[in-house]
Amino acid sequence: LPLLDIIDDMEKALQFAEESEQHSVKGVRIIHKKFLALLEKQGVLPFISAGTPFNHDLHEAVAMAKHNGSVPGIVLDELRRGYLWNNALLRHAQVRVAE
Q: C-alpha angle with apex 78: 75 to 84, nearest 5 degrees?
């Protein structure tokens, strides 16, 4: 689980940098991909939550929001990604859910 915190920090940094072509950002992208590949070899996979129905078994709702065009109970976005380990829940995704 502590390794997932490092992945979270890398993903936040990459979101901040967005499409930057700086060499340091390119390096972080490469390290991120290698880290995810290493976790995948150990059976640890992230799962996508945005756009799916809220599921207590996979998600931790940390916020509710009104969103035009969204069906109530649909996950709007992930604040922290969730992970499975050999198809069992390793960490809940923290999500924002449509009201």
A: 95
Alpha-helical (H) ranges within the chain are 2-17, 23-41
Give the C-alpha separation, 48 to 40, whole Å. Answer: 15
- Residue 22's Cβ-side half-sphere holds a number of Cα atoms within 13 Å equal to 9
Q: Could you read off the pLDDT of 17-66 as tens digits, one per residue?
A: 877 778 888 888 999 999 999 999 999 999 999 999 999 999 999 999 99
| pTM over 0.70, yes/no | yes
Distance CA 15, CA 65 (A): 22
Looking at residue 56, the DSSP 8-state letter turns out to be: T
CA 17 to CA 68: how far, in whole Å? 28
